[in-house]
User: What shape does this take?
Amino acid sequence: MAENTSSETTPRRLPPLAALRAFEATARHLSVKHAAQELSVTPTAVSHQLRRLEQVLGVTLFERLPRRLVLSAHGAALYPGTRDGFDALEQAVARLRAPPSRKTLTVSATPAFAARWLLPRAPGLRAVAPEFDLHVHASLDAVDLHAGQADAAIRYGSGKWRALDAELLWRERFAPVCSPLLGVKSAAGLRRQTLLHHQWRSHARRPVTWALWQREAGLDRLDVASGPVFSDETHAILAALGGQGVALLSLTLVAEELRSGALVQPCGPVIEGAGYYLVYPAHRRDDDAVRAVRAWIGPQADNTMC
Assistant: This one.
């Protein structure tokens, strides 16, 4: 427990709470009668509390004009503080009375990663943190975690992001994949196939493209500039599943299709890319939401690497 500061241990020097409450209600309504109705007391009782408060403070809080009441300069100075103080007190009491609300855990990832890796593993969150409901923010743009747009994110890259803790989940690997119906058996067979491409984000470090794969493979006469280009990996995966060509894809994102035989990896080489990282603001490491996402994602990532 943190040490008490002097402001927490020094007794508060405040007028009687009943008098402050009568003043706040009267100042808000500019009517003793309406204040009395709100407080369920008589107008005489409210007037007594107002006089008591003025005596304690040694100032006049209201100007009592014919048929109306207005705040004095001292009353106008006191009113905002009492109003805000009672508002805060009311909200604190309301929170205690309200039924406990569900907690929300927001995780950001690219649309392809969210659809093909994160969502199939969503039930695992309930197992380790049943008090949280998962919200998935799927976007190609990196969200501002410091602004609270998400509690955490899974990002592909070098692991170096300003003021963010980054936990390596695994290193990604890429290889040509296609439908077995195409009958591709070797790298040379790619020359007769349509190459499928997907756009890499502009900030991606060393994007894994067909041009890079060709250099690593040492394969000449491969037209790496032709073929359809998709804005998202998911679309390239669907095109490959439909037999529309050969795609250079994340082996993580098509792991299920490779296991089932819906897609095959006809040849190498396999290109090692950057890493997938779980990232979150460094100052939030011990927050409940961050603890929950780490407890959930960590074991899932370990199973992915197995």
Remarks:
- Residues 103-170+275-305 form a domain with the D-Maltodextrin-Binding Protein; domain 2 fold (CATH 3.40.190.10).
- Confidence is low (pLDDT under 50) at residues 1-7.
- The chain has three domains: 8-97, 103-170+275-305, 172-273.
